[in-house]
Design brief:
The chain has 230 residues and is α/β, with parallel strands linked by helices. The chain has eight helices and twelve strands.
Amino acid sequence: MENSLILIVEDEPEIAQILDAYLVREGYRTVRAADGETALQHHALLSPDLVLLDVGIPRLDGFGVLARLRQAGNTPVIMVTALAEDIDRLSGLRLGADDYVVKPFNPQEVVARVKAVLRRARGGAQESVRRFGDIEVDFQAHAAFVLQGDSRRPIPLTLSEFRILAYMIRRPTHAFDRADILDACLPESDALARTVDTHISNLRRKLEELGQTGLFSAIRGIGYRLSEPK
């Protein structure tokens, strides 16, 4: 993971310099952008491995940049911002952020988050396709399908829903704790653990609409499993 290119999008020079110094010390390459438009240009030209993205930047705020990045692909993104309200965190995560760091922050914590997000991203890329029953997950295409005869019907998932399905399909009979699901798929505050229930409910409904019933069993006091053991 060292030598990965990190795009730092931050309009406060001192903060950008601190992040740059800590990342370089850990062996990462860095490039900086002080506004949203420049960030998108750097992303298109340099294809960074991860983006550290401030929300309050000029010429297109962080949420706007994140939305454009998600239209272009699945580059891991960590939001770095002074916005600490749950609604702001949910907005970033709903748009597809991989993690969320609130200012003021410990630069060493940011570096640790960078390492963790890169590790998760590369772990998912090691395997191309996984099938369970009639469900197929394509990790590289970031898409999921229901197989029906000779057809592959796409499952209309949000990014968070896809991450949960991709995470749980690797061990479909394992009982996953909500905290594990949060850490692996929705790495936000423990205060948002309730969002796991919402995402699971939406996943279950979408699969049932495509004929896949009996999935995502609730395990009292623990969390969820994708399928009951046979």
